[in-house]
Amino acid sequence: METWHKFDNFPMEILSKLWVFNQEKEGSQRDVSLMKEHRQRYGLSGNCFDLTIWLLDELGKNGVEAYPIGHDLNTEDAHVAVIALDEIGNRYLCDLGDQWIVPVLIDGNSEDFGFDKHSRFFPAAEIQV
Questions:
Q1: Sheet architecture: strand order including 79-85
Q2: What helix, strand, coil percent values describe the chain, rounded to 5?
Q3: Can you give the residue range of the structural domain that contains 8?
Q4: Which of 71, 91, 93, 117 has an alpha carbon within 20 to 30 A of 80's alpha carbon?
């Protein structure tokens, strides 16, 4: 959660992606150091791909096992997020790109998992896993 909260004030935005896309070769992806520079200089964060790459980097630095997930890749509807594992191996969906408030436990084998609807995970909505 400490790593997750580093991103509390990072809005998902596509302006920086378009800006880089129009300046660089087509299809280029910013690396974390360039994202950090843009964040410091311009207050930018990035789209779901940027935020996923950055979150994976921060989680790795803090010893948290994590991996990317996605759907509709290579389409305009593509979206990516992160699955992070806690110290006992429970899986949590970490989706900065869709502005989740906190990661949500998705491991149905965990004793803490529940099928009920939950608030406080996604802005102004209840979720159910």
A1: 66-71, 79-85, 91-94, 104-105
A2: 30, 20, 50
A3: 2-127
A4: 117
Domain count, the chain: 1
Residues with Cβ within 8 Å of 68's Cβ and at least 6 positions away in sequence, in order, are 52, 56, 80, 81, 82, 83
Integer Cα distance of 66 and 56 in angstroms = 7
CATH code of the domain covering residue 65: 3.30.2140.20
Q: Judge contact between 68 and 52, C-beta under 8 A.
A: yes
pLDDT tens digits for 14-71? 887 777 777 766 567 889 999 999 999 989 899 999 999 999 999 999 999 999 999 9
Residues 6 or more apart in contact with residue 29 via CB below 8 angstroms: 49, 50, 53
The H-assigned helical ranges of the chain are: 2-5, 15-23, 32-42, 48-61
Report the predicted TM-score, pTM, of the whole model to 2 decimal places.
0.87
Type of residue at 56: L
